[in-house]
Design a protein that fits this description.
The protein is α+β, with helices and mostly antiparallel strands and about 210 residues long. The chain is built from four helices and nine strands, in the order βααββββββαβαβ. It starts with 7 loop residues before the first strand and ends in a 7-residue tail after the last strand.
Length: about 210
């Protein structure tokens, strides 16, 4: 069986873990054998809600075989013991909130954040991914060449058809603003995210839905 088309986000990864360690932790969090899942790590970046150089990372991964424990839902959180410490690993496919795809190589306050916002009735990851493939433009090309920019996906409830939601664009904008402030507050002690006048945020709006991540 080939690699599944669904891309998952993994949060709560300790920064000092190797790729092999991360694969084992993901498998333990899902309660499945690592050799069966055979996760592939496509990106690994610092948690944007935590202070810079914190101990928590966020990854995007695919699996050789779809995790059985996620078939009934799109999110699962379990505690995993690694290096004599307990870590809470969350695996999801909804990509709600901010998902970092890279860490800018520029010095603190000298770079920019690019926030990619998918359109209504779309998916925050799948909107930027090739159909029937795993190549994701923002992650696999832009994030790898933008040394001075951190690329962030922003996910929200984009459902329109047959939805009980009464949210409008104004509500979505307010939620985005609140999440940006939450991200700022997590790093305010170190002066990041907006303290410098050269700090930029670019929102890329895409209003045509495409396949799920």
């Amino acid at each position: 069986m080939g690699t599944t088309k669904t891309t998952y986000r993994v949060q709560g990864i300790p920064a000092d873990a190797s790729h092999d360690d991360i694969k084992v932790m993901i498998s333990q969090a899902l309660g499945e054998d690592a050799s069966t899942l055979d996760p592939t790590i496509h990106s690994l970046a610092s948690d944007p809600y935590k202070p810079l150089n914190s101990s928590t990372m966020v990854a995007t991964v695919t699996f050789e075989h779809a995790p059985k424990t996620l078939k009934a839902g799109d999110e699962l959180t379990n505690n995993v013991t690694w290096d004599s410490r307990t870590h809470y690993i969350t695996v999801d496919s909804s990509f709600r909130g901010f998902t970092p795809l890279n860490d800018a190589k520029a010095e603190l306050n000298s770079g920019m954040d690019v926030i990619a916002v998918s359109g209504l009735s779309s998916h925050p990851f799948g909107s930027w991914k090739a159909r029937r493939g795993t190549f994701m433009w923002l992650r696999d090309e832009v994030a790898k060449t933008a040394d001075k920019a951190r690329i962030l996906l922003y996910g929200y409830d984009t459902t329109l058809v047959d939805s009980d939601s009464f949210q409008d664009v104004g509500d979505i904008a307010q939620r985005l603003s609140a999440d940006v402030n939450a991200m700022r507050s997590g790093r305010s002690a170190q002066g990041a995210l907006g303290a410098d006048p050269n700090y930029l945020r670019c929102a890329l709006a895409r209003w045509t839905g495409r396949e799920r991540g």
